[in-house]
Write a structure and sequence with these properties.
The complex is a heterodimer of chains A (106) and B (116). Chain A has 106 residues and is an all-beta fold. Helices cover 0% and strands 46% of the residues of chain A. In chain A, β5 and β6 form a beta hairpin. Chain B is built from no helices and eleven strands. The chains are: A mainly beta (106), B mainly beta (116).
Chain lengths: 106, 116
């Protein structure tokens, strides 16, 4: 199984900060990588798919990059609505696995 | 409205069984695979199972393999997850998710609590 490792696990940031979250795969997933945002008590929301494609309706301050085994999610200027937990997930082969999550807090 | 709505969760004793249901609407259900993803309280997301649109391919996480059966009824636009021999570690919110192929459409989840 492909293991996904996110760093950091928790990130303290302020409004307006540039935030970067890293996701590493234990073997190549090419560009079969997605990012999700989850708020307490809610279902996850798709932000980015295929490593860098912004899902429709997602603000442009979110961006994704990377390929192979190293990926990043960047929030260019953190907004109040962005405090949440973020997950990466590969969809290269089964089982599809998620990273352990990164909590972005104030 | 494009949505999936889960039901069937509840409190079950260890060793018991449960059948979760997911009703889809607003999209051409028979053209899409479907997944179940779960989240234990305070924990991360775990992919559980997948069924292809024609039911000819099913995949399971190792943690549920042999105890879980995913199925669907395209005529009713529904997908099901039957979990047997439930363990306390199966306590989680179970989400039904459309395969797009990424997880673009999630339900609100249904809570399964395994407890004596």
């Amino acid at each position: 199984d492909i293991q996904m490792t996110q760093s950091p696990s928790t990130l303290s940031a302020s409004i307006g900060d540039r935030v970067t979250i890293t996701c590493r795969a234990s073997q190549t997933v090419f560009r079969y990588l997605a990012w999700y945002q989850q708020k307490p008590g809610k279902a996850p929301k798709l932000l980015i798919h295929t490593a860098s494609s912004l899902e429709s309706g997602v603000p442009s301050r979110f961006s994704g990059s990377g390929s192979g085994t190293e990926f990043t999610l960047t929030i260019s200027s953190l907004q109040p609505d962005d405090f949440a937990t973020y997950y990466c997930q590969h969809f290269y082969n089964f089982p599809w696995t998620f990273g352990q999550g990164t909590k972005v807090e104030l | 409205q494009v949505q999936v709505v889960e039901s069937g969760g509840g409190v079950v004793q260890p060793g018991g069984s449960l059948r979760l249901s997911c009703a889809a609407s607003g999209f051409s259900f028979s053209n899409y695979g479907m997944h179940w993803v779960r989240q234990a309280p305070g924990k991360g997301l775990e992919w559980v199972a997948f069924i292809r649109k024609d039911e000819n391919k099913k995949e399971y996480a190792e943690s549920v393999k042999g105890r879980c059966t995913i199925s669907r009824d395209n005529s009713k636009k529904m997908v099901f997850l039957e979990v047997n021999n439930l363990e306390t570690e199966d306590t989680a919110v179970y989400y039904c998710v459309k395969d797009d192929p990424v997880f673009s459409l999630w339900g609100q989840g249904t809570l399964v609590t395994v407890s004596s």
